[in-house]
Each structure stands twice: as structure tokens, then as C-alpha cells.
Task: structure prediction
Amino acid sequence: MRSFWETESWTSYDVAVIGGGIVGVNTAIDIVTRHPEWRVLLLERSLLPTGASTRNAGFACVGSLSEIASDIDIMGRTAAADLVQRRLEGLTLLRSRCANADVGYVEDGGSEIFLDDHPSLERMDEINELLSPIFSCDIFSQRNDLIASFGMSSSIRTLVHTPFEGTVHSGKLINVLWDLASRLGVQIRTGSEVVALEDQGSRVVLNVRTPHQDVQLYADRVVIATNAMIPTLARGAEIPDIVPGRGQVVVTKPLTNLRLRGSFHADEGYYYFRVLGNRVLLGGGRNLDFDGERTTSHETTENIQLVLEHMLCTLILPEYPSVEIETRWAGTMAFTATKQPYVGFVSPNCLIAFGCNGMGVAMSSVVARQTALLVG
Result:
């Protein structure tokens, strides 16, 4: 039996947002900014967010040449350009929101490396022309001179560079956003896993599992922003097919005289690497085992880890006689076939907010804004 104080102060909310990652916390911030009088709750199942938001590579990008070429083939020129526009808008909104805080943002530009004659290279002029109204200049240029200056392998045949890319410190970013949400009045509860929802029409009942007890909470509106776990809380709803995709990562020990700069994509985005101070972070490889990597497990696998290590030594850092790995981890991304974000109601008072497809940093703010408008 709850006390009077618990019932009055801790169980009933105007809005509950499930998922403390970058989409969820931005959504909570947007909602409480629009309605400062509302009681807004942010629920995170772990002690700290352990999904894609704190296990990603920290890329602040709008898409590589080959990825945008693929987007054009999937969704057409207009939709692909609109998606790039929204990614850029999202990054602008996020940087504005965090303008007075240290999120480790570095804008050293981004590059895509090719080992052979990829078809997207022949489409550079087409894609630059398509995106010129957005950037007012060519977004991509061939810069093979950077291969040697970055100290990478001579087996890299082509390097395509863009100045419109940066990186963030994902841990600092979430800390800053959580702190901002808390200062605005959002109540943040960690170690609180929502195991079931019931939309009763007048309110939504949330069954929440905590380390010490199971509790019921109530909210007028609920936002499900749990990335790859959305389908488990929106069972039976007509939503896009959201599937998980594990991203495995390695980070080197500190390197002396590191010449590499910026962030990089390879093999149509299935591999990605970046400078992290005097270290190098490399992730990817799920294309080696699509079925096995379609999982929410955060375990690393030997076969992909070995490929990442080999790539580091032979392609990225060939000048170093030995490259030691300092840490490894895996995170769960989520993908849809259309590569489009999705915000919508799944019942009268529950809606989902999804906008990742490997671009959560870029898309989170526009998805959050759209969600807050639908909430009311």
C-alpha cells in the first residue's frame, strides 16, 4: 500500500516518456518547454542509458556519398534530399540547444574511403547538384591528397571529403541533455523498466519494474522512444517494421603523432571510424553477419572484432607497428526498410517516436519536436 505522499507526488503525470536516450530526452525537453505547467516523467530502464545513444560512435553527420546515393535509389531524389535537409536541421537544433555546454563537438569534416570504383563515385556531380539548394555549395569533393596526409593505406583508391560533418562525445551529450531536462522540471527515473502499457482511454497505466518493487504509474499521454525496443511496447499496433542492428566498436590505446583527422565512412557506411583525442574509434561490420547482428544483445563477437582489428592495422593505421585495443563494446541501433523517421499514435493516448536508422544524433531533435507537437 502506497503512502499518501507517494500517491500525491510520484504516481501521476501529464506525460510519461519511455526511453532516456537522445530521442526520449529531447522529446521530454520539448514537451516541458511548450508546457512548463505539466508534470513530465522520463523513464530509463537502466541506471544509465545503455542503448544506441551512449554506445554509438558519436557522428554528427547528414550522410556519406554512397549512403545518399542509396537513399535516392530507395526513396527517390526529392525524399532523399528532404531527409538530408531534416538531418541538417536536426543537428542545427541540437547544437543550439547545447550551445552553452561542452558536448565534445568537433567539426573536422568527414570523409568516405573507397578501395575500388564504387558506382556512387560517378554520381557525385548529380548529388552535389541535388543538395546545392541546402548547402549553397558542393557538399562532396574528391580529395585523394588526404589519404597520405592522414597516414592511411595506399590501397585506398579514392577519398571523398565533406566539410559538413562533425563528431560529439556521446556521454557528455546525454549528460548535458539530462541536466537540461532536470533543470526544466522533467522528473527522471532510472532503473525503471516499463514492461507493459494499458491505454484506458482516460489515462494510460504503466507497469514499471524497478530493482526493489513493481509499481504502477499513470499518465495522460505516453511517448515510447525506446529505439529498437519500440515493438515490444507497441505490440499489435500498425507501425513500421523496426529491426535491431548491433554495432560493435573498438577504441585504441593512445597513439603518438596521430595524423588522422575527422570522421570516416567505408563500405557504404557499414564501417565507420573517427579520431577520439589521440585514439581512434572504429565500428561496424554487421554486414558480415546480418542475421547474427539483428539482435539487442550487447555482446561483442570474435569474428567481427578480428575484422575491425585487421582493418585498423592494415587500412587506417598502417604506420604503427602495433595497435593495441583499449576498450570494446556493442550497442543496439534500429532500422526500417524505408529509412524514414516515424512519429505517430498507436492508441488514443500513446505514440511512438522513432528516428534513428543510424542517424540518431542528427534526427533526434526534429523527431522530438514533431512528437511534442502531437502530444499537444
The CA atoms of residues 197 and 206 lie 5 Å apart. The radius of gyration is 21 Å. The mean pLDDT is 94.
